[in-house]
């Protein structure tokens, strides 16, 4: 792992380690697989978080590094959940969240960020505790909602990307910033695809009533 972190290549004069490159490319593949609701989403995610944990720890972004550990745990749950909730026609069953669920997500994002940022600051675990905390909480929420099959997880990812691009740039992780920008386009596409899937899955139930 240390070799992957120390060795790399230059892009526009900026070093990109093999660990950062492989971890972020794997993360892009995860988004593509999630769009297709493939079970391969989860094992590829485990590869990505393992590499990015080391990358962000070396960049003194404790919150972003810590989230990789939490994501790994949620990934195990998501893998199990998607295996149990497959439909022969629709694949992984997805749905839109209720108003109560959406409000709960917003409240959890705000309270979680407000609680975690002071912890990062007190521990001197991050040079940018508030955006770092927001990315941590947003990512955890996004993966949790993805595991539950809620369409709204894509919107949480949009918020994470909006915070993540400038944070990565200021951290000198230029390739990661580029990947976050690409994420945005993939997330919009995923949002549209999952909405269509949710409508198709809901149609038989509406007809039955």
TrEMBL record:
It is a multi-pass membrane protein. Keywords: Cell membrane, Membrane, Transmembrane, Transmembrane helix, Transport. It is found in: Cell membrane. The chain crosses the membrane at residues 39-59, 65-82, 103-123, 135-160, 172-192. InterPro entries: NMN_transpt_PnuC (IPR006419). One of its GO terms (molecular function) is nicotinamide riboside transmembrane transporter activity. It comes from the Bacteria. The keyword Protein transport does not apply. One of its GO terms (cellular component) is plasma membrane. Belongs to the nicotinamide ribonucleoside (NR) uptake permease (TC 4.B.1) family. This is Nicotinamide mononucleotide transporter. It comes from Saccharothrix algeriensis. The lineage of its organism: Bacteria, Bacillati, Actinomycetota, Actinomycetes, Pseudonocardiales.
């Amino acid at each position: 792992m240390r070799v992957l972190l120390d060795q790399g290549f230059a892009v526009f004069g900026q070093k990109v380690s093999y660990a950062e490159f492989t971890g972020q490319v794997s993360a892009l593949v995860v988004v593509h697989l999630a769009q297709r609701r493939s079970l391969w989403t989860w094992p590829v995610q485990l590869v990505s978080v393992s590499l990015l944990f080391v990358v962000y720890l070396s960049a003194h972004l404790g919150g972003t590094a810590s989230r990789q550990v939490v994501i790994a745990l949620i990934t195990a749950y998501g893998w199990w959940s998607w295996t149990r909730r497959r439909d022969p026609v629709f694949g992984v069953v997805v749905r839109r969240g209720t108003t109560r669920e959406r409000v709960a997500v917003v409240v959890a994002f705000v309270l979680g960020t407000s609680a975690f940022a002071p912890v990062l600051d007190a521990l001197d675990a991050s040079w940018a505790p508030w955006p770092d905390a927001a990315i941590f909480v947003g990512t955890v929420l996004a993966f949790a909602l993805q595991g539950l099959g809620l369409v709204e997880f894509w919107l949480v990812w949009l918020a994470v990307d909006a915070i993540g691009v400038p944070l990565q740039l200021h951290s000198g992780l230029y390739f990661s910033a580029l990947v976050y920008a690409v994420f945005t386009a993939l997330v919009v596409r995923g949002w549209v695809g999952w909405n269509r899937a949710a409508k198709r899955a809901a149609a038989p139930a509406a007809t039955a009533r």
